[in-house]
Structure formats: structure tokens, C-alpha cells
Specification:
Elements lengths: L32 H10 L1 E2 L13 E2 L4 E4 L15 E5 L1 H4 E3 L2 E2 L16 E5 L2 H6 L10 E3 L5 E2 L7 E3 L2 E5 L2 E3 L2 E4 L2 E3 L5 E2 L6 H16 L12 H8 L7 H5 L3 E2 L2 E2 L41 E5 L15 E5 H7 L7 H7 L2 E6 L2 E8 L5 E3 L5 E3 L11
Parallel strand pairs: 3-4, 3-15, 4-7, 7-11
Antiparallel strand pairs: 1-2, 5-6, 8-9, 8-10, 11-14, 12-13, 16-17, 18-19, 20-21, 21-22, 22-23
Length: 384
Amino acid sequence: MIGLCQKGSCRKLIGHTGKCDPWPTNCWSFLEEKDKKKLSKAGYATPRGGKKGAYQNHVYRNNKVIIPFEKINVIDTSNYEDGYIVRLYPDQAFISSGILSEINLPDGEPLVIGENAFVLYRSHQSFDEFPPLDEWSVRHLEDKNGNIVEKRSSEVLEKGHYILRLPKVGGGKKIIKNEVIEGPPQGIFAPEYANKETNFLSQASLAWQIIHTSSSPYTASQALHLKLILDECSLSDGVHYNYLGMMKGNITTCPLCLKRISYDELHSHINLENEESLLNSGLIVDGTNRSTTVNLFHMIPLEYERLHHNHFYVSWGHATCNTKLGQRRCYSLAEVKEMDIKVAKLIGDSIETSGWISDDDKMIRSPNGAVWIRISEELYIERD
């Protein structure tokens, strides 16, 4: 009989060889290499513009995070099992040149630059106005013997107080100040964080959805190990996926438009020809756009206040639908029906119900799958 080992939370199969493992990625080893790469990418934190913010890029989500100083009052630092460091800009760290601010975290712990915080210089002006203290050094990595190293590991210490990301000033032959990049990336974008357990289960959930795409080359018999793992989360029966619009029956769907996702769309390049609302995005020359038709899709937008990258709310969705949705929650048809706030059209003396609206007034869905998204907030105009 097939079953999970479950010794010390082990999720390998009963009778396995080698050490026990609660996160056995071999449960999706039957996937083609391109699908494994797609899953790996979904497990990475990949912030846009990461370099200038000293963010790590293309590393797993279970890593140390950077907490912006301006967000410390809305973030629960206990969420970050792999550690955190607070980023301050010079005008946040200094009262005036040479005089540091005295700052505590919400739990009363003092903020100490060089220990649980660093200063990020992003302009030559801020560097000149609030220069680093004489005893400060650029952030760097040291091994146990005090040697500077390039790669992080459990035996490497992080030292130093500040990071330089100073852009070039001027252009052509009139370069006034050169670009200065000093100090390694300090952590990942906090909203993208997930601990190792959650990140593994999220990838397992996404693997299951790959298997159930339309025209998938995989069979259910190949995924028995994966199914056993998802059984623990009550996901493999499809009820949750269908409720949130991630699947219709046993076929994976885009949660926003509810159209079936074909297997080929996981790897084909995006095409805007049939996207009426995005045609003004400009002509995309064949081969120049690296985005695939279907990408990672979050049902609840990532935010600092709460962690939303988890196996219950990650899916595959069209890149164009991701663009249309933006930083809004994707409510399923079942969810708005449960809210029971109907939307109707008044035509003469007759009323025609056209769908349901979410209780935050941000999304309307029709019974047959059409969706409307609110794209702007109300304008409050003062009257004389």
C-alpha cells in the first residue's frame, strides 16, 4: 500500500531509502524539465528593480527579508522565520549630519545600524548630506576566519552598516558623478516571503495544477505521491480549487477570466492580439517579450501586512489577466455569490440582474463568467 512515511513529518513514501525529508521535491520528478524550471521560478523571490533596493533576486522565498523602515509599524516580524533586517534611508537614520536617530521597533527592541538595520544610500546628494559615520563600513560577508566572501551560508557572518547604490549623474561626455555600487544584496522583498514548508506546499499545489491543464501530457497515476501530500491539505479532491476558480471540474483554469489553461500556454510567449483592453500596450515584436502566456497568479495580492504566498492562494493565470487585476483580490464567482450583493440594470421599468459584486465594491461577476474590475477610487470633491 502506498503511503507517506510520516516519521518526523517525513513526506517521502513508506519504505524509502536515505534520510527522511518533509519536503521531497521528487514527488514531481516525473515532470518535464521545462515544467520543473517553471515550478522553481515560482518558488523564487524576484522583485522588480531589486538591484537598486539591495534586494536578493532569484533566491528561494525562505530567506531573510528586508523590512523598509516606514513599514515597521504594520509588519509582524515573527512571520519571518529566516530572519529580517530593517532598511533605512539616510534621512530616516540621521537627525542631522553625524547625529543618529534613536529608534525602537514596535516590540521595544532598539534599532541598531550594523546589527538589525542598515542604511541604503541611493543618491549622491543623500551621501553628501548624511555621510556614513567614521567608524562605519560597507556591508559585506565574512567567513569564520574574518575573510571577505561572496556567497552566504550558515557559517558566514554579515558585517557593516551601509549599502551604496548611487546612480551615474550626467550623460555622454559630461559625467558629473560615476555610478557607485558597493555592498551585497541584503534580503528578499518581504511580501514575497514564505517559510520552507509553505514554499514547498505552494510548489506542490502548482505542480498539481500543471498536471491538470488542458492537453497535459501527464496522467494521474504519475502523481500518486504528489496527491498524498496534497491530501494532507485537503487540496487533491479539487473542491478548494473549484471554489476559487482555479479549476473547473478537473481542468486548471485562470482564476480571473475562468478560461481553461492549456498546457502549451505555460511555455508559449504572450500574445496581445486577442486582448482588447491591452491593445494600446504597443506592438510586441515576435521573440522580444520574455513573458509566458501563463504565469504565477496570486488570488490575494502580496502585501506587507500579511503573508499571502501560500498553497491555498497560488495558481496559474494568464499574464494579461494578472495585468488587468493588478493589486486587487481576485474574488471567485462562488465567493461573490455567497456575499449575495446583486448588481442589476434598470431598463425603463424593468430590472435585470446581471451578477454579483464583492463587498468591497471592487469586482463584479456575471453568472456566465464575465468579470468587471474597479480601476479607480471614488473622487470626493469639496463643494463651496
